[in-house]
Amino acid sequence: MSSDIRDSRIFVAGHRGLVGSALVRHLSAEGYTNIITRTRAELNLKRQDEVEAFFRAEQPEYVFLSAAHVGGIGANNTYRAEFIYDNLIIAANVIEAAYRTGVRKLLNLGSSCIYPRLAPQPLKEESLLSGPLEPTNEPYAIAKIAAIKLCRSYHEQYGVNFISAMPTNLYGPGDNFDLERSHVLPALIRRIHEAKDSNADAVTLWGDGSPRREFLHVDDLARALVFIMNNIDAQDLDNAGLSDLFLNVGTGTDVTVKELASLIAQAVGYSGSFHWDTSKPNGTPRKLMDVSRLTSLGWTANIGLAEGIADTYSWFRTHAQQVRM
């Protein structure tokens, strides 16, 4: 990437989301001076004509594709058509427009749910499409896999520098705390916070608490994405044998959901007990990313889980009236 990247035109698609807002914070703090953003009301990424007109008018040079329709187990399993359609059409529109207008580099954001339900742990990039997906989030996963393949295919056919990053489970300031649509960590923060507020002796949580999950603070992810954008190109990944042109991003460590609940209870100051509702799905038994490739290239996470949970809970309490609940 050129030395004048800090002054280049950088489009952050989805800048109001968890990842996009962290990216804007990090880019701004690091002195990037020409960040382009649009709200959903200003630019509907599901409308091809709007996306093409935006790219022609603004001529971004670098694109972070962090816009997505996201949610937890409940939302993924309930709104299956929305999750596959919205994510497919957003990726297709942005990637095609980026190619047509000569974007110098595009970094597409995926998810660890792209991997097969029972793929060997820790999850290696080479495990993509090696087995059946987790049924509860299959539509979302297929859309994210399609975006990876779009970037790869555009690189192969047109020579463009379009790559992808697959983060593990994310959390942090700006998360979604809606109990129907949120992921496990913010959902637990809200449930345990409300149990403390109501002086409840116990709080009911989904599943049996046995699944193991890895969690990455979104500010760490933002650092990783800017590092990748600045240092790793499509040809580098191809030369390294990563023909699908993506890298895992995570911490390389995981905890059980029970252990996670205990860490959150400590941060919240809740001393009650947990009731595990085993009629609710557990989801994938384990999702731990192999992050050795990214680590070997010079990047590692630096925000510990207990520290990150405390930070997120502090943000949640401060913004309780504004957060998505």
N-to-C order of helices and strands: EHEHEHHEHEEHEEEHHEEHEEHH
Strand order of the largest sheet: 2-1-3-4-5-10
Anisotropy-based shape: globular
- What structural class is derived from the secondary structure elements? alpha/beta
Radius of gyration: 19 Å
CATH fold annotation of the domain at 5-175 and 215-252 and 288-303:
Rossmann fold
How many alpha or pi helices? 11
> How many strands in all?
13
* Arithmetic mean pLDDT: 93
Separation, N- and C-terminal Cα atoms? 40 Å
Low-confidence stretches: none
Q: What is the highest CATH level, the class of the domain at 5-175 and 215-252 and 288-303?
A: Alpha Beta
Strand content: 5-15%
Tell me which CATH architecture of the domain at 5-175 and 215-252 and 288-303 applies here. 3-Layer(aba) Sandwich
Largest sheet at a glance? 6 strands, parallel
| CATH superfamily membership of the domain at 5-175 and 215-252 and 288-303 | NAD(P)-binding Rossmann-like Domain
Helical residues, percent: 40-55%
Give a brief rundown of this model.
The chain is of the alpha/beta class and 325 residues long.
Note down, in words, how this protein is organized.
α4 packs parallel to α5 and α9 packs across α11. This protein has a domain of 225 residues: NAD(P)-binding Rossmann-like Domain (Rossmann fold). 42% of the residues lie in helices and 14% in strands. The strands form 4 sheets. The protein has a 6-stranded parallel sheet with strand order 2-1-3-4-5-10, with helices on both faces. Strands 11-8-13 form a 3-stranded mixed sheet. A two-stranded parallel sheet has the order 6-9. The longest helix is centred in the first third of the chain and has 21 residues. With 325 residues, the protein is an alpha/beta fold. The radius of gyration is 19 Å and the shape is globular. The model has no long low-confidence stretch (mean pLDDT 93). β4, α5 and β5 form a beta-alpha-beta unit.
